[in-house]
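Standup notes
- HV: blocked on the assembly model, inputs below
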Amino acid sequence: MSTSPSPASVLREQLARNLRAARQHAGLTQEQLAERSGLHQTYLSDIERGKRNVTLDVVERLAAALSVAPLALLAD
Amino acid sequence: MSTSPSPASVLREQLARNLRAARQHAGLTQEQLAERSGLHQTYLSDIERGKRNVTLDVVERLAAALSVAPLALLAD
DNA sequence: ATGTAGACTTAAGTCGACC
DNA sequence: AGGTCGACTTAAGTCTACA
């Protein structure tokens, strides 16, 4: 039943895209970003694939680790 | 180890301010917004006081209920 | 009409192992 | 180097009641 139960969280998708782009632009691997942000590599993998509904605190930690504005990770 | 207890979650504070402003601008009570968003009044109270670390899905539901862009609730 | 408290269920977030 | 699978702990989010 892949009738997509939830409206496909826009912000979650944006974060997935922007995070991966920002990380790669910074020349970091998921493991390196995991170290810097204090989050786990497995978790970052999920986020970059849009599988996780992260909290605002996590968005901030990622933004800080990448030296970008938090909103930049959520923008269109 | 850091003298700051908690990094003072910027996004959380922004959301608190913007949510209350947007809700009042729409002429809604917390209870009415609770109905529209499917969230609870007690929870909205906490969010508007910056006490809760909400997820992206909740931000979207609030934005939808208020007919504003999700990023508008997080902006400075 | 809002804020707070407490008990509760579910998912966020951690971690090690592996492909 | 990234993805996936589980098992686990903690906090997000629900709900009732009351000042």
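- HV (later): unblocked. Residues 39-40, 42-43, 52-55, 58 of chain B lie near DNA strand D (CB under 10 Å from a C1'). Residues 8 and 50 of chain B are 10 Å apart (CA to CA).
- Next: hand off to the docking folks.
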